[in-house]
Structure formats: structure tokens, C-alpha cells
Amino acid sequence: MPSAAPSLSAIGPFEVRSTCCYCGVGCGVVIETEDTASGRVITGVRGAPDHPANFGRLCTKGTTLHLTAGASTRLLQPQLRERDAKGARTASLKDTGWDQALDIAARRFAAIIREHGPDAVAFYISGQLLTEDYYVFNKLAKGLIGTNNVDTNSRLCMSSAVAGYKATLGADAPPACYEDIDHAECLFISGSNTAFAHPILYRRIEAAREKNPALKTIVVDPRRTDTARDADLHLAILPGTDVALANGMLHVLLWEGLCNLDYIRDHTEGFETLKELVREYTPASVAAICGIGEEDLITAAKWFGGSRATLSLYCQGLNQSSNGTQNNASVINLHLATGQIGRPGAGPFSLTGQPNAMGGREVGGMANLLSAHRDLANPEHRAEVAALWGIDAVPAKPGKTAVELFNAVRTGEIKAVWIACTNPAQSMPDAGLVREALSRAEFVVLQEAFANTDTAPYADLLLPASTWGEKEGTVTNSERRITRVRSAIAPPGAARHDWVIARDFALRLGNELGNTDAPRLFAYTTPEEVFNEHRETTRGRDLDITGMSYAMLEARGPQQWPLREGETTGAVRLYGDGRFPTASGRARFAPTHHKPTAEKTDARYPLHFNTGRLRDHWHGMSRTGRVARLYSHVEEPVLAMNAIDMAKRKFKDGDIVQVASRRGEFVARVEASDDMRSGQSYLPMHWGSQFMNSAGANAVTSPAVDPVSRQPELKHAAVRVEKLELPWELVVMRTVSEAAAPELMSAAQPLLAEFGYATLALFGREQPAVILRAANKVPVGETLLADIDRIFAFDATTSLNYMDARRGIAKRVMVTGGRVTGVRLTGETAAREWLKDAMAEGLAVEPVRRWVLAPLSAPPAGNVGRGRIVCNCLNVAESEIRTAVEQGADLAALQETLKYGTQCGSCVPELKQLVRIRKAA
Ligand SMILES: Nc1nc2c(c(=O)[nH]1)N[C@H]1C(S)=C(S)[C@@H](COP(=O)(O)OP(=O)(O)OC[C@H]3O[C@@H](n4cnc5c(=O)[nH]c(N)nc54)[C@H](O)[C@@H]3O)O[C@H]1N2
Ligand SMILES: Nc1nc2c(c(=O)[nH]1)N[C@H]1C(S)=C(S)[C@@H](COP(=O)(O)OP(=O)(O)OC[C@H]3O[C@@H](n4cnc5c(=O)[nH]c(N)nc54)[C@H](O)[C@@H]3O)O[C@H]1N2
Ligand code: SF4
Ligand SMILES: [Mo]
């Protein structure tokens, strides 16, 4: 194994160890490369066998990382957007050099700072940046410019977890570790769809349950997710009632004598107030608030308090709420009251979402934080950081947090915003408002790896960043483990590393502002130098990593913090001695009453709207959206509703509906799901304007925030759903090489706006294809159809055509090299699934030929299509699994003889469910 980044001149296959760039599990990967005529390219990826987060395993997203490494749709050159005579942004972008780009940025920022002060500019960065990138950005804002206006997408993600830990344990440190799953006797999983969002951790949970059948799992989630379905007990609470649930559980724990009074006496404070408060949270009243059975509440409490070791795993179901801090604190209350902390298998373990959410917290890269878990509000902390940086002072005025920041951009208080490694036009709540803010801003810089995100059209300056497979640095995963990220190939085009871009901008801005300190403050030549400076800021702090170095991580592998100078291993878990980093050394209970969410349903907006993740996609899909097979599990945005609510509205599966809140709306298909309780609806967060004709889920979500953490309430909005009559349908499918797929999708994206309903996706595997699905009130005009033919390269002269003007139906099929390579159906699309399979699987062309030329529009009898793919590694459809199960196969048989679910394992929860359904029938 090579020890450092390979010399790029080396010839032949080469492998480099790095970390997966998706979720906070932080799996180690081995990147496989090959040298080609056009330089070194990434050809494969596999799990690093000895990485303590994954021991060789990767999920569906990790195993397909190499398929996202091609250059198409990458930003390759700095680009400047032109403005029209009225000063509005145009679609026209001009390539420019780095010197010119950074000079322009420095001049614009300097002019605004001189005229309006440092708080008139802001940085909005990301938990997907490496620790070194993050550190430089934070110092640039707080140390050079003198503004605390630096916030990140972690505000939408982990800030309630940070606030919850600090309020109770005294510091932002997840005390547990992955190994605790093996030692636990009870797992309390709340607001976390671990099976989808932290799949490799979920494999660990499956293994632990297999090894220890006594291990009890409780899942708290309003939806019956794959994680919930697998659990011993699923509490399908009403959305936003987590605090009531925890208070009710504590009530039961007290009643049952399951609290650890010795622990409470020796290591905590404030219990009396909480005890008094939970008196009124009787099982009956809590069951009513949460909409669950009293018995289930009591069982949950007994399992939690009665087990030898209880581990809680929680995520956005708790964090993304206007009560997010209290949701977190109330789970921690339960651990403190039962002494379930600081021992193997016990503790409140907040799962981090992004690969470096933790690193961002460590460098203090948020509007209210400072380096090494210091607080901006604390004058001593400010003085310490100023001394470490060698500057007079860091500004005391708190910076603006994400939602406030974009509001201030909208009102003109903030005039220039620098966005790096995040896509706020899609991922922020109330996307319409954020888009309006961006369009009003005087100057927007976007530092991105990919060109086609929803934020890109608002950028005046686009700066191409290097990304996974190219960058060097470190990230910290959920269990406080710092791992190296390494480069396997050179960045394409003119792309540069994020920390380099931030440094070079800082140097130029310093120059413009006449700040002679800048060259000293940003004298880094390698990410290692940045790491070493960051390390020094942690000395004596709870996350002290003075014993770590790049060389040490090289020699000894990934390490958990704290790891102080002189130590050889980090802390596996925290607070084993019952001492907490608070003034008194005791943990604090955080008593609080149940409060409803900020937005409530009413007669006009009667349905609760919830959002979250899919198994195979990542956020705005700039990366996963390039890989055809990652669409096969869920092909398009579908609103999930309960069957009763659908019947009440006379909706059928597949109907097109408009979902509207007080802020905006989107159009999607609707499907009944028995995972949903009545009164609730759900749409995945991934689909934005690149994939549908609206901003998607965040067109309707609420910008209400938690008063302490300022985290927005992305899981709770009130909506109304109405059916749209769009009888005229269109489906266009075109095969394309994997490398060219993103480009064709980008080219087709402007078409989405032309229809009442429209989505874009990929399908297929060896032979990927782009698919545009659309519907409209009336047939669209010939000009638009001609545009479609041009964009999708349909050749009317060589394609098979059928037209029935009277019925308004047209069929067009292209056959190339004995395969169906293009299909355009208008008016009627009943045969689309059959034709889709014909294209993806290369089925015989003859039946398709006959069908095109015949007047029928339905597919030939019996050709319904394979349907949804469940096992992505082996390309197995749900229909095929059902057939095998009907013939008697159980999970073991599916795995042993058919090998389904034996590679990455991400589909195992669904295989189990299909077997369960069959057994129940
Ligand atoms: N496949 C995939 N994995 C990912 C990501 C991705 O984009 N794709 N993103 C990563 C990131 S950044 C993050 S933050 C994590 C998020 O990981 P998770 O938090 O596990 O994922 P979500 O689907 O956002 O939300 C989890 C669950 O919260 C539930 N929920 C909603 N309201 C409530 C409530 O009031 N109470 C409770 N108890 N639960 C509620 C939802 O129904 C949902 O099932 O995933 C990470 N992993
Ligand atoms: N409705 C709803 N909205 C949500 C959520 C939800 O559950 N529901 N979850 C929220 C959460 S938890 C999160 S974390 C956010 C995530 O929201 P975003 O941060 O907007 O999501 P991403 O699509 O991951 O954006 C990262 C961007 O960085 C780019 N990129 C990749 N690598 C690099 C790199 O090395 N350098 C640079 N400069 N750019 C790079 C990618 O192309 C991508 O466009 O979404 C939030 N929004
Ligand atoms: S669980 Fe999947 S997405 Fe998360 S780090 Fe591991 S391979 Fe990557
Ligand atoms: Mo996140």
C-alpha cells in the first residue's frame, strides 16, 4: 500500500487509501486507478479491509463512487457570469483564469467591506469540506475579515445535537463509539433511518442482533421505515412529540424504580426539577400526545432502563425541529437518569450526517463557535483564539446562522456571499426565499465541484473545486475518529483544492484591505501545515489531538479523539469516570415541557409534511445523480401518503398532485404507503430543479428554527395536496454512455419547465439511459417536440414512427446496432415500463418493431416490466425476489443460493420484509 499520495508520473495500476465522501459513518476505501492516454483515472473502489468504521464493507453509494469520478459536468475553469443592461444575471458564462477570478473576488469583497463593514459579507460552507479546508475558511472570516458571518449546512444538520450535548454533558462530544453496538442490550433508535442513512452501521446492528438475540431494538419514527420494520418495537409517534415521549419514559422509569439514583446523586445535577416536571407525563397522557399505545410506552421505558447497557442512536428526526435542542437533551436525560453512559454499550450517540460534520465542529466553523469547541460568546475563548492566531481580537458580535444569513442577503444587509461545497438553493428550507435572496445579492461566489446544481445559476463567479479522489486532508466520523482523505488522481481542468482557493483569496483580500498580517496568517503550503495549526488550538481542550499527526495517522491508522501528546491511542468512549466538562464536573439534566412544532396543520393545510433520505441518493444528487443504477431503487420523486387520506381525496396510485404550503408548491406523483400514518405525507429531499419542475421538498418546508441551535424545522410543515388533471403524457428515453449521461441530463433540464409535471432520471446499468417523464393539461406544440428530438438526438428519418392524430398518440422508436436506443411516446405512455426494460436489458427488437407499427398503445400481453430494483449490486428486481419467495425461498436461501443481498447488504432489510410479507400471507 502506498504511504502517501502517489507520484502522478507513476505508470500502471495504483491504489490509494482514502475515506468515502458520503455519510458520517466514515468508511475507509481503497481507490483503484489506471493510467490511460488521457492521464490517470479512477477505475474502481472497494472497502478498506482494516478500517475500523467498515472493515471492508461499503454500501450502494460507496461501491459506486468510482462511477462518479468522470469529468463530465465538472466545473473545470473559473467562470464569470455576464449581467444584462439592467444588471440582471444572464445565462452567459465566460471562462476566466484563476488570477483574474480571485482578483475580482478580492476587489468586490474589499469594496463592500470598506463601504459597509465586515458584516456585509458572509461565507456559507459545508460539513463536506475537509477539516483543513474548514479551518482556513473560518480563519479567513473571523481572523482576517473580522466577521463571524460564517455558517454552514451543519446548521441544517447537527447544530441541535451540538446544543443538546452542551446543555447536558457540557461539551460537544459524542461519548460513544461504533463498538458499543456490539455491547448494547437495548438500542433506542430515534429519528434515524439508519438502514438508509448509515447503512454500514446498520450492517453492524444486524450482526449484533444475530450474535445476541436478547438485544432489543426500539425505533421511534412517525414513519414505518426499513429501520422501524426490523425493530422489536416501533413507536410511530406523531411528528414532533419526542420530548413528551422521553418525559413519559422517565415517568415510567421513576415509577418502576429503574432510575440509577446513585449515578444521579454522584454525577449529575438538576434531577429534582426534572422529576417534578415529568410527574404530569403519565403513560395515559403521553400515549395521547404521541398517538401510541400506553403499553408500548411502558415497554420502551422498561427495556431502556432495565437493560444492562442501552445505546441511543439518533439523527435528523430529533435535530430538524424547532424543539431540536430539547429533543436531543431529553434523550440524554434518560441516559443520565439511568446511568446508561460511559460504559461499553451505553450512551447517547448522535449520528453525524455528513462525512466531516464533526471536523467542522472541531474547528469552530460556525457563526457562534470558535476553534476547538470554543464559544464565541465567551470573552476568554475569543482572547485565546486571537492569541493563537496572533491577531488583536476576534469579533464579539455573533454571526448570522444559515436561515438568518440568507434573510440578511435578501434584505441587503449582507451584500456578498461566498458559498462552498453546498447547494443552498435546494437544501435550505423555503427554497423560494433563498433563491430570491441569491438573485438580489450584489455578488455571489460559488466554489463547487460540479457545474449543474440549483445554486449555480445565481453565482456571479464559479470557482472549480477539486473533490473526492483528488483532495488531501482529514475528516472526523461520528465516533470522533479522524481519518486521512487522500488524492488518487490530479484534479481535472483548472480545479483547485478548497483550502488553496480560500488561502489564495485571503492573501489577495488582505492585500486589497491593506492588512499586512495576511501573508503570515495564511502562510500554508500543504494541508498538513493547516492540520498542525488546528491541532495546536486543541491543546488542553476536550478534543485535544496534540498526540496526532499525519505521520501518526499514516503509521497507526485512523484515531479517535481526544488523543493527547504522549498518548498512543485515543479515547474509545468518554465520561467513564462520571466527570463531565461542566463547571461543577457534573452532568446537567435539562428539564423541559413538550411543545408543538412551529407550524401546525389546519383546515387549509391539513396534512403534515415530512422529508428525508433515500437509500441510494445523496442530497442534491450532484454525484449520485450521475449513476444510472442508483435510480433503480426509487426512480422518481413520489409523495407518500396514507391510503385513507388518499381515498378521502379520491387519489389513485400514480396520480399527479400539487403539494402546497404557505410558502410554495411542487408537483409530483402520489402513492399510498402503509408506512405512513393518516394525516402525514413524505417526500425525499433529493429531487430539486435539476430533476423536477420545481425546487422539490424545500419549495414548501418551513424556515422556523430552534431558538437555541437555530436549526431549521425541515421535518415539519403543513401542506395541502390537490390532484392535477394532466391527461396528456410524454415519455422520452435515450441510451447514452455512463460518461455522457450527466451532460444529456443537463441539456434536457430546461425542458422541465415546459410541462405541468416533469421529471428527469437515469435508468439501466451496462446500458444507461436518460428518461424524461412529463404530463400536461393539453398536448404540447410541435416546436417543443422538435426541441426534444434535437436534445435527445432523435433522427426522424431512421426511427420507426407511428402517429394517430385522431387519438393524439405518437410513437417513435430508434434502433441502433440491434438494440432499442431511443423511445418517444406522446399522448399515451402505457408501454413505457416494457420499453424501458427493452432498452436497459437489450431485449429483442422484433416485438418492439411490431408494436410500434400497430395501432395499440398498451404493451403486448404479459410485458409489464421488471419494476423496482431492490438488490443493486446484483441487479435484482422486487418482482424477481417475490417470485423466489413465493417458491419458498427464505432470507437464507435468497442469500445462499441466489446470492441476493450478499454484497453490500444494503437491501437486506427489504429482503427480510418481502419474506415476512409472504409468511404473513
Ligand atoms: N442514503 C443517504 N444517506 C445519508 C444522506 C443522504 O443524503 N443519503 N445524508 C447524510 C446526512 S447529511 C444526514 S444528516 C443523515 C440523516 O440521517 P437520518 O436522520 O437517519 O435521515 P432522514 O431520512 O433525514 O430522517 C430520519 C427519520 O426521521 C424521521 N422523523 C421525522 N419527524 C420525526 C419526529 O418528529 N420524531 C422522530 N423521532 N423522527 C422523525 C423521518 O420519518 C425519517 O425516517 O444521513 C446521512 N446519510
Ligand atoms: N427538506 C429537507 N432539506 C434538507 C434536509 C432534510 O432532511 N430535508 N437535510 C439537511 C441536511 S441534514 C443537510 S446536511 C443538507 C445538505 O445539503 P447540501 O449541502 O446542499 O447538499 P449536497 O448536495 O451534498 O451539497 C454539497 C455540494 O458540494 C459539491 N461538492 C462535492 N465535493 C466538493 C468539494 O470537494 N469541494 C466543493 N467546493 N464542492 C464539492 C457537490 O457537488 C454538492 O453540490 O440538506 C439539508 N436540507
Ligand atoms: S455507509 Fe455508505 S455512504 Fe456511508 S461512509 Fe460507508 S460506504 Fe460511504
Ligand atoms: Mo446532514
Q: What secondary-structure arrangement, pairings included, does this model have?
A:
Elements: E1 14-19, E2 28-36, E3 39-47, H1 60-63, E4 79-83, E5 89-95, H2 98-116, E6 121-125, H3 131-145, E7 150-152, H4 159-168, H5 180-183, E8 186-190, H6 194-197, H7 199-211, E9 216-220, H8 226-230, E10 233-235, H9 242-255, H10 261-267, E11 268-269, H11 271-278, H12 283-290, H13 294-306, E12 310-314, H14 316-319, H15 324-338, E13 347-350, H16 357-362, E14 369-370, E15 374-375, H17 379-389, H18 402-411, E16 416-420, H19 424-427, H20 431-440, E17 443-448, E18 461-464, E19 473-476, E20 481-485, H21 498-513, H22 518-521, H23 527-537, H24 550-556, E21 559-560, E22 587-588, E23 607-612, E24 638-641, H25 643-648, E25 656-660, E26 665-672, E27 680-684, E28 717-723, E29 728-735, H26 741-748, E30 757-763, E31 769-776, H27 782-791, E32 800-804, E33 809-816, E34 819-827, H28 832-841, H29 846-853, E35 869-871, E36 876-877, H30 878-886, H31 891-896, H32 908-920
Parallel strand pairs: 6-7, 6-16, 8-9, 8-12, 9-10, 11-22, 12-13, 16-17, 17-18, 23-27, 24-26
Antiparallel strand pairs: 1-2, 2-3, 4-5, 4-18, 14-15, 19-20, 20-21, 23-28, 24-27, 25-26, 25-28, 29-31, 29-34, 30-31, 32-33, 33-34, 35-36
Helix pairs in contact: 2-21, 3-21, 3-23, 4-15, 9-12, 9-13, 9-15, 12-13, 18-20, 30-32
The site of one ligand MGD has 35 residues, from helix 19, strand 17 and strand 23.
In short:
With 921 residues, the protein is of the alpha/beta class.
Summarize the structure in words.
This protein has 32 helices and 36 strands. The protein is of the alpha/beta class. The chain has a seven-stranded mixed beta sheet, with helices on both faces. Strands 23-27-24-26-25-28 form a six-stranded mixed barrel. A hairpin with a 2-residue loop joins strand 33 and strand 34. The chain is globular and about 85 Å long. 58% of the residues are buried. It binds ligand MGD (2 copies), iron/sulfur cluster and molybdenum atom. Molybdenum atom (MO) binds next to loops. The site of iron/sulfur cluster (SF4) has 14 residues, from helix 1 and helix 7.
